[in-house]
Amino acid sequence: RGGGRVPNRLVTLALHAASAPPPPAPVVMNTDRESGPRTSVATSPTSGAPIALGYVHRDFAVVGQRFTIGGTDGPPATVTGLAH
Asked: What is the per-residue pLDDT for 55?
């Protein structure tokens, strides 16, 4: 079905809010399409801002891609890195 390709990739997300919704919170594209779950969240020791890990569809696992966490009205997040 997927040609042997994994549908989702694990990415790091920078959250643009003081806190994140509790798990399990979906990672949602601006098209209202749920991409995957946010798996964990912590406070960055360098910036003091929340950062998270989450799964997003492989076609949108690109540094700089924007999502929201927990639904379309949730806090915005930006992909900052790709897990290998």
From this structure: 86
